[in-house]
Design goal:
The chain contains 14 helices and 22 strands. With 432 residues, it is α+β, with helices and mostly antiparallel strands. The longest helix has 21 residues. It is an enzyme of class 6 (ligase).
Length: 432
Amino acid sequence: MKILLLGSGGREHAFAWKIVNSQKCSKLYVAPGNAGTSQIAENVNLSVIDFEGIASFVQTNNIDMVVVGPEEPLVKGIVDYFQNDHELKNIPVIGPSKKGAQLEGSKDFSKKFMERHAIPTAASRTFTKDTIEDGLAYLKTQDLPIVLKADGLAAGKGVLICLSLEEAETSLKEMLLESKFGAASEKVVIEQFLEGIELSVFVATDGKSYKILPEAKDYKRIGEKDTGLNTGGMGAVSPVPFADEQFLQKVERRIVIPTIKGLEEENIRYTGFLFIGLMNVNGDPYVIEYNVRMGDPETQAVLPRIKSDFVDLLHAMGTFNLENYTFNLHQFTTTTIVMVAGGYPGDYEKGDKIEGLDTILADNKSVIFHAGTKLGPGGEIVTNGGRVLAITGIGNDVEEALRHGYETVSKICWKDLYFRKDIGQDILNLLK
């Protein structure tokens, strides 16, 4: 198959790495891609939301399948665009319809969906500028801390955990009256704070059948011991030792099955990946959020653990044949360490030359995934984003995987780079 993959981050490099290792792929294009994808596929200078340009490229190059990495084109309706075009509608597009993408595109939609289908989640209510007085009164009735979520997409920055009533009141006013997160905070979900341990479960589905992929735990905050600002993710570990078989059975029974059934009952087309952000509260799973694509950097930890053919998985989803797909996993552990530009998640520089990549030998101990990188004028690899590289270590256990990952990290440098040195330490402490 000739495949077009949309996106430019670490998640997409991991997808590309997995796709080109399949004998079912004859040619892979990545739009727009990064320096890492350019080494294994052909990058195409197309925006992920240029639907006309993507459609034209698909037709001109006889593309057999389109794989959508990020959420924005899904929320804006790329699947519907293909479905509504008689020349494109038979090309599998891996991702949900615009309505299905509302599970991520609107926190209010996803909370109401969970309520309708009795899926365990934190209690919440949604408010707008017109009902802000009701929202302020509601805050006074809630326990602290309290969570405020911008309804729409806010690049991972639209969630605030407020420790005091004053902070919550100020934040609600800023979000609704001052557009703190732009159009994303025209509605705000006020949500009960759940105490527990976070993890993510990933599901592949064709809308009826599903396969549960390996779970992962990610590390959101910039500082060690989970301090400082939230980021897109500073690292990940898979599998998660505290997510035992009993817990994962609860996740499947209480969350995965009702979610897939709910989508089907509501006639919502959903063909692709579903990321379920969970809180383990005393052994019971609660949904924090849905994402309608794979997570980043969890993908870089999860995909290396998939043993069966990845293109077969994608095609089975896209052709509504997932029931017949055989899913196998490697038994090793993976840990991902994200290397970022100095200043991230605030202001940071781009264009710094990355040294040391050419000295790292290809082995079974680690994989380097590019995120914010591009080729410089002399063909050198330079930084081009906040999260620059994700290094996935592979080992028999968490300790060995971390050792292999950090050994590779130590060989790479550029001006003002930063990474957390404590990824996975909480899990090691739990295992002691």
